[in-house]
Amino acid sequence: xxxxxxxxxxxxxxxxxxxxxxxxxxxxxxxxxxxxxxxxxxxxxxxxxxxxxxxxxxxxxxxxxxxxxxxxxxxxxxxxxxxxxxxxxxxxxxxxxxxxxxxxxxxxxxxxxxxxxxxxxxxxxxxxxxxxxxxxxxxxxxxxxxxxxxxxxxxxxxxxxxxxxxxxxxxxxxxxxxxxxxxxxxxxxxxxxxxxxxxx
Length: 200
Ligand code: ATP
Ligand code: MG
What we know:
Blueprint: E1 2-8, H1 15-27, E2 32-37, H2 52-63, E3 69-71, H3 74-78, H4 84-95, E4 100-106, H5 107-112, H6 119-125, E5 127-131, H7 140-147, H8 149-154, E6 155-158, H9 167-175, H10 186-195
The structure holds adenosine-5'-triphosphate and magnesium ion.
């Protein structure tokens, strides 16, 4: 089994996340993609993040129509900070050693990877699929000089659709009363409006 892991705040989940996950699934022949909403992302400590039940609900709604997509609340259940290393160890226990895990990260996250908790151990233990993101240019030589040969073996780069969508932009649009149609799945748009999210 080869499983792709898509972690994020998903505040809210948008078509950039979904299109990227689907493109990666196909090009790496992954058996499924597991979306894992983060409880408290270590790099977003200073910021307000929407209630986890809402983020989980939107992620579940958004992924329903793809039979290869699943959602896990393991990081939400664990509480505290969401460290990818803990998640990876837990997934290895659940799926067994024969399952290969591929963490999907955007270019913006790849540029910050060296700052992650136990970054070197993480890159040695599992695969990363680094996708492109509009407006972000990552110098892979800098990544390589930090992680050494593990970077060449375990960090795979792939060009993905490049939808210029971010959750930050969606939240801003809702706050200003602007349309978010075609940026998020319709079920997510309806959920945001119904629950009155991102208005203040
Ligand atoms: P925010 O603006 O709140 O930071 P975001 O849109 O960056 O939200 P996150 O939940 O922070 O979304 O991202 C989770 C993962 O998805 C990260 O690895 C990020 O790089 C990736 N990602 C987010 N948006 C896109 C996009 N439009 N295209 C490709 N990858 C994306
Ligand atoms: Mg982000």
